[in-house]
């Protein structure tokens, strides 16, 4: 059975109609690949359409204000993708005169572009024989060939890249790469795939060995840590609040938030005003307070869970220069903050 030919034929019949599949323009392919990283199509598609509408060319994206780019990205998560996207657009527009890199090695020079993205763009746009390996590809290959080497180990990453390369249709690499990814996304799904209709069922090792639900194998993730976040939502008599930009490196870099107090343990409402972290923050300011959410909001990130409380702080005047509350929604924020602003309805 020819694995490659079967998948390519399956793709020609079953592929979903997606806007970036109607073009070879590397700018649009690049946008789609960055937006769809660790994102489902149904969630990422509106963002792709919004970026294409607002920034139809790489020059438009390069000339954009980073704050506007982050605002458009809001809710998609992994904000470093948006910052890297913007930085790379400026590099292409200013250093390469708008000419998109055409080779795998040159694509790797773009900020935020790794092996997978470079391989995808090079093969789809420029017919380069570079094999893609993403989560979907790992799953298809590990199940079909019965490979239990951990996909997130150094050995596994090398082995699966080598295998993917040997299977590549060098005459039509773009369609084959999209075929194996699409197959993993819609047929060989992570949970409960319908193997009865799979065109590879007669030669799939995992199916024959009853190991479909055991593959692929992953090494255990880094231990998740818990943090307690206390956001201070100031409201002054003249309807202003404090909103600060996160400048330190991290997933929320350059996004905006209310002043934050991190504590080792949960701060109780009755202890709030006298808590050492709180009293040091306010010093001599007179204020009244209330806890907005009676149940702690748990915001789950890849390696940490944020146990979050929003404290409403009412003051006559702000301790420093603030912004009008009416302007809050114009700032790019983490989804945690954006959801609060929507629900509080200032």
Automatic annotation (TrEMBL):
Catalytic activity as recorded in UniProt: Hydrolyzes free adenine bases from 7,8-dihydro-8-oxoguanine:adenine mismatched double-stranded DNA, leaving an apurinic site
Keywords carried by this UniProt record: 4Fe-4S, DNA damage, DNA repair, Glycosidase, Hydrolase, Iron, Iron-sulfur, Metal-binding
InterPro entries hit by this protein: A/G_AdeGlyc_MutY (IPR005760), DNA_glycosylase (IPR011257), HhH-GPD_domain (IPR003265), HhH_base_excis_C (IPR023170), HhH_motif (IPR000445), MIG/MutY (IPR044298), MutY_C (IPR029119), NUDIX_hydrolase-like_dom_sf (IPR015797)
Annotated family: Belongs to the Nth/MutY family.
The keyword RNA-binding is assigned to this record: no
Annotated cofactor note: Binds 1 [4Fe-4S] cluster.
Span of domain HhH-GPD: 35-186
Gene name as annotated: mutY
Keyword Chaperone: no
Cofactor(s) annotated in UniProt: [4Fe-4S] cluster
Role summary: Adenine glycosylase active on G-A mispairs. MutY also corrects error-prone DNA synthesis past GO lesions which are due to the oxidatively damaged form of guanine: 7,8-dihydro-8-oxoguanine (8-oxo-dGTP).
Enzyme class (EC, first level): hydrolase
Enzyme Commission identifier(s): 3.2.2.31
Name this polypeptide is given: Adenine DNA glycosylase
């Amino acid at each position: 059975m020819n694995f490659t030919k079967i998948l390519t034929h399956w793709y020609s019949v079953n592929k979903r109609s997606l806007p970036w599949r109607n073009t070879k323009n590397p700018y649009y392919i690049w946008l789609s690949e960055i937006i769809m990283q660790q994102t489902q199509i149904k969630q990422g598609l509106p963002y792709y359409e919004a970026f294409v509408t607002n920034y139809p060319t790489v020059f438009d994206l390069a000339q954009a204000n980073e704050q506007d780019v982050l605002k458009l990205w809001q809710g998609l998560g992994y904000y470093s993708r948006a910052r890297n996207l913007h930085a790379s657009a400026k590099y292409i527009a200013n250093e390469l005169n708008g000419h998109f890199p055409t080779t795998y090695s040159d694509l790797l020079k773009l900020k935020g572009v790794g092996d997978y993205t470079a391989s995808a763009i090079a093969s789809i746009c420029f017919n380069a024989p570079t094999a893609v390996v993403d989560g979907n590809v790992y799953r298809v290959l590990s199940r079909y060939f019965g490979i239990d080497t951990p996909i997130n180990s150094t050995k596994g990453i090398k082995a699966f890249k080598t295998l993917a390369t040997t299977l590549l249709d060098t005459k039509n690499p773009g369609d084959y790469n999209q075929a194996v990814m699409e197959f993993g996304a819609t047929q060989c799904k992570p949970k409960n795939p319908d193997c009865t209709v799979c065109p590879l069922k007669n030669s799939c090792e995992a199916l024959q060995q009853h190991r479909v639900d055991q593959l692929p194998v992953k090494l255990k993730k880094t231990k998740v840590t818990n943090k307690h976040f206390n956001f201070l939502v100031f409201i002054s008599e003249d309807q202003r609040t404090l909103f600060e930009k996160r400048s330190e490196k991290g997933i929320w870099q350059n996004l905006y938030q209310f002043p934050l107090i991190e504590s080792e343990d949960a701060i109780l409402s009755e202890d709030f005003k006298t808590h050492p972290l709180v009293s040091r923050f306010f010093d001599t300011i007179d204020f009244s307070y209330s806890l907005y959410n009676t149940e702690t909001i748990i915001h789950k990130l890849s390696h940490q869970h944020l146990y979050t409380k929003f404290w409403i702080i009412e003051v006559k005047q702000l301790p420093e220069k603030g912004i009008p509350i009416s302007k809050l929604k114009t700032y790019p924020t983490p989804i945690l903050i954006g959801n609060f602003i929507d629900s509080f309805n200032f």
